[in-house]
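Handoff note, outgoing to incoming analyst
You'll be picking up this chain. Sequence as last confirmed:
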Amino acid sequence: MLLNLVAAVVAAFAVTQIAIFTTTVYLHRGLSHRALSVRPAAALPFRTVIWITTGMRPRQWVAVHRKHHAATDTAEDPHSPMQVGFWRVQLGNAGLYRRVATDDANTQKYARDLPPDALDRVAFDHAFAGLAVGVTILVVVMWALGFPIWVGFLASGLHAVMYLMLSGAINAVGHTKGKQPYTNSATNLQSLALITAGEGLHNNHHAAPTSARFALNTPEIDPGWWLVRLLVALRLAQVRHEDVHMKTAA
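Most recent structure output, in case you need it:
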């Protein structure tokens, strides 16, 4: 029984990390800020991972995030702990996200460069279908490894909780707790960055939003940057600029 539970937790954490790395590299650094361009050979797997692990539509995620940057910690910010409170963002980030993501006018305003294509209409816009595929894959993999079917379902549920809590922490903790080397309302927390593929270096990101690298000072660590460098080495992506263009002063 204990082994089954441990397996479910490990599997959930692994899937969550895959989803987090895909979110930060493809949705955040790539699509939202154009800090890097991803070639189609890598973009399709990224889109598929987002679909089966989160069910999110990339253009909606991009629109919500761009609005966050345009109205950071103001009343128009989709998920500001300074406006709605720390715990509402930490625990209710999914609801705050959905409220803005389903606003077609907001998506048209902030993500007009990402119109839906044929693959979106056939597959990627159908969230429940993607999640069903993802759950099925996880259940089958865990069963093939010798675990009871319920372990796969438990891992799927734990993954959902982990992803939502880490996403909430990026917005809640990332605007309330940590260091502020640059003059903006976001914060850096290295411990959070280590489990969110670098997203915990939020103050750095707000200071240089078009940088594909979030670790700007020694000894900061940005795991997402490692994946970016791997993609570049495999000629599956191109970084917009290697030097860091600061938006705010230190």
